[in-house]
Amino acid sequence: MCMKTQPKSPHESDLSLEQMAPNFPAIRACIFDMDGLLINSEDMVTQSTNNLLAKYGRPLLTGSIRVQIMGIPGSTNSNVFHNWARLPISREQFAQESREEMRQLFQNCEPLPGAEKLLSSLSRACSGSESGERIELALATSSKAGSYEVKTSRPETKRLLSFFQPDRQVLGDDLRLRQGRGKPAPDMYLVALQSLNSDPGKKPVMPNECLVFEDSVVGVEAGRRAGMRVIWVPHPGLAAEYQPTQKDVLAGRTGMVEIGDEWQLGGIDDGWAESISSLEEFDYDKYSIFAPS
User: Fold this and answer.
1) Considering only the top CATH level, what class is 10-40+110-290?
2) pLDDT by residue (tens digit) across 177-215?
3) Annotation marks residue 33 as catalytic
4) Out of 14, 33, 174, 187, which one is annotated catalytic?
């Protein structure tokens, strides 16, 4: 049985979200991305790519290019990257060298600030819904199984990801996903929700009772398209690049990757998403989550 702690009084809480969207139900489940949110693997991708660019006498990644490849699987093999990089080697050779370089670096992945504390708290927290049940947790990462194993090989990262039950971990090559339907399509988050609702004896968790944690722009869009609330925790460089268009990011309306289904997108300032600079800043009370003290 969850033991609820007393929420903050109105004058102590930030009520802006409630004022914009007063009918939100209490959060019953939290679904997390992994790369760049829970572990520092996105920095490893940048380091690996810059190592190879320097090796072949090319300039290092610029902020504008980095934001176009962050969080998108295979993005360093895209036209956007190669038209900019103009490497003197084939895409196939670059891809092979990049895989080898990243595999070496991924063995050193570490948890990002606040990640373990937040997951530990949420694993023991309960929802402010009428049933007051424990908060459910799931993982939705574009990393494929082989890459995931390397990234989580250290004791610290292995312990961090142990907060997610194996059947509630949706990876990029998960057989439950349709081919070619990675983020920003909503499928990964919807499959994660299905995994949370696998127990027929429990009241199903609805999409708007789910809170998605993401660091990438395409990930925010995927969460919004899934009909879930989203917290965007961008890398400082990414936040700076998108500062002028932050409202579009939170609505899932950057148009970075065209997939159609415009009806799935959010609205500007609709209250379904917010941005914080670190997982350490998460406000449990705002989402009616009662965490142990």
Assistant:
1) alpha beta
2) 998 888 999 999 999 999 999 888 889 999 999 999 999
3) yes
4) 33
